[in-house]
Amino acid sequence: MTHQPAIPTLSAADPEIAGLVEAEATRQHDKVRLIASENYVSRAVLEATGTVLTNKYSEGYAGRRYYEGQQNVDPIERLAIERAKAVFGADHANVQPYSGSPANLAAYLAFAQPGDTILGMALPDGGHLTHGWSVSATGKWFNAVRYGVRKETGRVDLDQVRDLAREHRPKLIFAGGTAIPRIIDFPAFAEIAEEVGAVLVADIAHIAGLVAGGAHPSPVGHAPVITTTTHKTLRGPRGAMILTDAEHAKAVDKAVFPGLQGGPHNHTTAAIAVALGEAARPDFRDYAHGVVANAKALADALLDRGYELVSGGTDNHLLLVDLTNKQVGGKPAAQALDRAGIELNYNTVPFDPRKPFDPSGIRLGTAAITTRGLRPEHQPAIAEWIDRVVTAAAREDESGLDTVAAEVRELLAEFPMPGYVA
Ligand SMILES: Cc1ncc(COP(=O)(O)O)c(C=O)c1O
């Protein structure tokens, strides 16, 4: 038994599921986890998610529920809200969205009508599906106009954002994305939104932990509506929040419930409160800055080995590597890396000539390995492993992958994982 908290009752009741949970704990322990949207939550957050709060229905908001028996849930939700407001310095917080996608849908529901024009970042350039991409409901039900990055710099093209905003007068502008390795210029977005009368939505799902820890500028004071997941750099449970200024609070609350959702997931709300309590502590600032220091060190080590990084480097937790000059696609490289104990995802790069399911790039992030305790001095070794595996993948040579996996396990054995004991 390696999972912590231990799961003896589950093991007895459903050994099949318990076995897979145990195997997942070991997998997470043994791999260098570089998926940019993932992390390891604390044991306290894990415990909160596994409580009897999952039994309770609480449609509505604290003090205004449609079900009785909220003596404990109301204070839990109020604590989560107060902590969110304090950590981010926001006027208002809604902690009920089930995840990042519904949080973004709530912003549409609150401030736009179907068919209205919205402006978001194109998916292949680093935007999220819910910023108006064609296959998403947001792209089907709204008239989505998309901006991207500059070819020469790999950075968000703010001139294009301004030009498109002036031409199309969107109701909503989304700033933020899933594969943006550079600081997002929230004041510049705010100026554009104000000029055209749009509501600026800052989607900080990826960088929320960095914002909370002072390692990325905050959108508070620039974007009246801020959506975020709670499970990436913020290191909380799967869930989401919407932060707003006072003016936009009511519309967002109405959109989340009753507009879009029924009962909030109270076990998640409790775990969000716990994670926000952790994020308010001074050591979380060290964590957030450590994530960025590790990403920069990993970027430098990969650049030294001739890797091409979109935008030439990183300011945050995330790196986007274009493997074109290594003569291998992102997908075979990611698959070989996974077999070698290095977990990441294949990703399109801006202006990618290849298809999204077989793109040119890989995306890496340092949120999880920083939680594990890895530091900048460990990044050259990770870059060296990546290089060995990518070089082998280009030759379709699988012979060295197990050796790398063993070396990875040996390093990681020194770094405890919350949620696992050997
Ligand atoms: C920027 C951004 N927004 C929204 C989401 C959606 O979050 P979820 O997967 O929780 O629906 C993601 C997830 O990757 C994201 O990166």
From TrEMBL:
<protein>
    <recommendedName>
        <fullName>Serine hydroxymethyltransferase</fullName>
        <ecNumber>2.1.2.1</ecNumber>
    </recommendedName>
</protein>
<dbReference type="InterPro" id="IPR015421">
    <property type="entry name" value="PyrdxlP-dep_Trfase_major"/>
</dbReference>
<dbReference type="InterPro" id="IPR049943">
    <property type="entry name" value="Ser_HO-MeTrfase-like"/>
</dbReference>
<dbReference type="InterPro" id="IPR015424">
    <property type="entry name" value="PyrdxlP-dep_Trfase"/>
</dbReference>
<dbReference type="GO" id="GO:0005829">
    <property type="term" value="C:cytosol"/>
</dbReference>
<keyword id="KW-0554">One-carbon metabolism</keyword>
<comment type="subunit">
    <text>Homodimer.</text>
</comment>
<feature type="binding site">
    <location>
        <begin position="127"/>
        <end position="129"/>
    </location>
    <ligand>
        <name>(6S)-5,6,7,8-tetrahydrofolate</name>
    </ligand>
</feature>
<dbReference type="GO" id="GO:0030170">
    <property type="term" value="F:pyridoxal phosphate binding"/>
</dbReference>
<feature type="site" description="Plays an important role in substrate specificity">
    <location>
        <position position="231"/>
    </location>
</feature>
<dbReference type="InterPro" id="IPR001085">
    <property type="entry name" value="Ser_HO-MeTrfase"/>
</dbReference>
<dbReference type="InterPro" id="IPR015422">
    <property type="entry name" value="PyrdxlP-dep_Trfase_small"/>
</dbReference>
<comment type="pathway">
    <text>Amino-acid biosynthesis; glycine biosynthesis; glycine from L-serine: step 1/1.</text>
</comment>
<keyword id="KW-0489">Methyltransferase</keyword>
<feature type="binding site">
    <location>
        <position position="123"/>
    </location>
    <ligand>
        <name>(6S)-5,6,7,8-tetrahydrofolate</name>
    </ligand>
</feature>
<keyword id="KW-0663">Pyridoxal phosphate</keyword>
<dbReference type="GO" id="GO:0019264">
    <property type="term" value="P:glycine biosynthetic process from serine"/>
</dbReference>
<feature type="modified residue" description="N6-(pyridoxal phosphate)lysine">
    <location>
        <position position="232"/>
    </location>
</feature>
<dbReference type="Pfam" id="PF00464">
    <property type="entry name" value="SHMT"/>
</dbReference>
<dbReference type="GO" id="GO:0032259">
    <property type="term" value="P:methylation"/>
</dbReference>
<keyword id="KW-0028">Amino-acid biosynthesis</keyword>
<keyword id="KW-0808">Transferase</keyword>
<dbReference type="GO" id="GO:0004372">
    <property type="term" value="F:glycine hydroxymethyltransferase activity"/>
</dbReference>
<comment type="function">
    <text>Catalyzes the reversible interconversion of serine and glycine with tetrahydrofolate (THF) serving as the one-carbon carrier. This reaction serves as the major source of one-carbon groups required for the biosynthesis of purines, thymidylate, methionine, and other important biomolecules. Also exhibits THF-independent aldolase activity toward beta-hydroxyamino acids, producing glycine and aldehydes, via a retro-aldol mechanism. Thus, is able to catalyze the cleavage of L-allo-threonine.</text>
</comment>
<comment type="pathway">
    <text>One-carbon metabolism; tetrahydrofolate interconversion.</text>
</comment>
<keyword id="KW-0963">Cytoplasm</keyword>
<dbReference type="GO" id="GO:0042803">
    <property type="term" value="F:protein homodimerization activity"/>
</dbReference>
<dbReference type="GO" id="GO:0008168">
    <property type="term" value="F:methyltransferase activity"/>
</dbReference>
<dbReference type="InterPro" id="IPR039429">
    <property type="entry name" value="SHMT-like_dom"/>
</dbReference>
<dbReference type="GO" id="GO:0035999">
    <property type="term" value="P:tetrahydrofolate interconversion"/>
</dbReference>
<comment type="similarity">
    <text>Belongs to the SHMT family.</text>
</comment>
<feature type="domain" description="Serine hydroxymethyltransferase-like">
    <location>
        <begin position="10"/>
        <end position="386"/>
    </location>
</feature>
